[in-house]
């Protein structure tokens, strides 16, 4: 039975890494896009609508990464379940859901302004 727990812990760590990779990839991609918009086209004019689109795209990457990290946290907690870890998981999930909700609302608002 212990080897099954080890397999799930490894799977959870892989999911963690995937979430982090998504976050870093999205940030790097959109940083390059931002720098291109900010400095290459109009060095003296800040393209607000373009920056809003970039923020919207970054928000989508953040939300996707959060989904992976929540799944990983659930697996980690199930494998080593204690009352304290269950409470910590609940708090993390509530915080991540709140962040996801408000970030989603902001993305929707930015998207509707276009």
Shape: elongated
Q: What order do the SSEs take from the amino end to the carboxyl end, as H and E? A: HHH
Helix content: over 70%
Low-confidence stretches: none
DSSP summary: helix tally: 3
Between the first and last Cα atoms, what is the distance in angstroms? Answer: 54 Å
Taking the sheet with the most strands, its summary is: none
Tell me the number of structural domains.
1
Structural class by sheet pairing and helices: mainly alpha
Number of E strands: 0
Strand content: under 5%
Mean pLDDT: 84
Gyration radius (Cα, Å) is: 18 Å
Notes on the structure:
This protein is an all-alpha fold. It has one domain. It is 90% helix and 0% strand. It has three helices and no strands. The protein has helices spanning 2-41, 48-79, 83-113. Helix 1 (2-41) runs antiparallel to helix 2 and helix 2 (48-79) runs antiparallel to helix 3 (83-113). The chain is elongated. The termini are far apart. The model has no long low-confidence stretch (mean pLDDT 84).
What are the key terms here?
114 residues
Concise account of the structure shown:
With 114 residues, the protein is mainly alpha-helical. The chain is built from three helices and no strands.
How does the SSE layout of this entry go?
Elements lengths: L1 H40 L6 H32 L3 H31 L1
Helix pairs in contact: 1-2, 2-3
């Amino acid at each position: 039975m212990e080897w099954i727990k080890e397999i799930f812990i490894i799977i959870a760590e892989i999911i963690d890494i995937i979430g982090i990779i998504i976050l870093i990839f999205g940030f790097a991609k959109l940083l390059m896009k931002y720098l291109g918009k900010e400095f290459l086209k109009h060095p003296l004019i800040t393209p607000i609508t373009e920056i809003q689109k970039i923020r919207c795209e970054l928000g989508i990457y953040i939300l996707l990464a959060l989904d992976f990290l929540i799944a990983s946290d659930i697996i980690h907690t199930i494998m080593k379940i204690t009352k304290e870890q269950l409470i910590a998981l609940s708090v993390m999930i509530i915080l991540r859901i709140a962040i996801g909700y408000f970030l989603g609302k902001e993305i929707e608002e930015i998207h509707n302004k276009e």
